Amino acid sequence: MDTAQVRALPGRLEPMLARPGVLPPDNGTWALEMKWDGVRVLAYVDGGAVRLLSRRGQDITPAYPELDGLATALAGRQALLDGEVVALGADGWPSFEALQRRIHVTSPTAARLFARSTPVTYLAFDLLHLDGRALLNEPYRRRRSLLESLALDGPRWQTPPSFTGTPGADLLTVSRQHGLEGVVAKRLESRYEPGRRTGSWVKIKNIYRQEAVVGGWRPGQGLRSGLIGSLLVGMYGEGGLAYAGHVGTGFTQAALQMLTERLAPLRRDSSPFADLLPAEHARDAVWAEPALVVEVAFTGWTEAGRMRAPSYQGLRIDKDPSEVTREV
Q: Which residue spans within the chain are E strands per DSSP?
């Protein structure tokens, strides 16, 4: 691909970000979108050329050859799109676990093979430039109108709906039913602010809570040197203690110190988990007797039975580890 063909478009832009928050009032000044479970990508399209940049500005065009058709879909027009690359699961909804097979593929040959077995779809939810005209200062409602006029409805690209006048609680329920992260609320009159996390965009996540048994930890590094870095946790099932992921966020300094002291006398030589851990988790693991129970917040379950984006909430001294099972 000749990247010179897209030189008329602006240089690297950082995507606008959303702040965590709660659903805004249903007062007609906000639009709601689903929070898609994928990878944020800016798509530069100019004539016959497509260039895809990650949130950090890395050129990832070779990783997703099936998206080259965006240029044809735009019929020669010049555009800069903001959106999400997703892999659709068997139910037709985005599956982050399915996308994992594609995220780390850099070889063009391998990417073409994966494009047949695990194709991705580009969900365009914003339009930043069109035919040489910058739209960053246009209100969201105007940008969305122009985006929808492009009619991106193809085999590997879509413009997902933006909802106004629909109760946010209803959309949040739908997102939860389909295993999505949540919804994003955007002010209708907001401009696009590259790289900024403003109150004009608010992300409302579906959060679950679950007790978990600590079966080990990974040593901390840097500021956490000498302390735990993350907890290796699980729940009991028919086969024993099933691994459910590693928890590396949500700790205060006091909590790190407390857990380090409590876990030290529980150290053991072998894993208490009934199943094998991923190599990257087990490589530096320190195993522990499964005697401590912690409360964990997370956004959902993966197909492998792991907690997605788990965050430490506190120690549960009132729970017997043997009673901790996966909650439905």
A: 17-20, 30-35, 39-46, 49-54, 79-86, 121-130, 133-134, 157-158, 182-187, 197-205, 208-219, 228-237, 240-247, 267-268, 286-298, 300-301, 307-308, 311-315
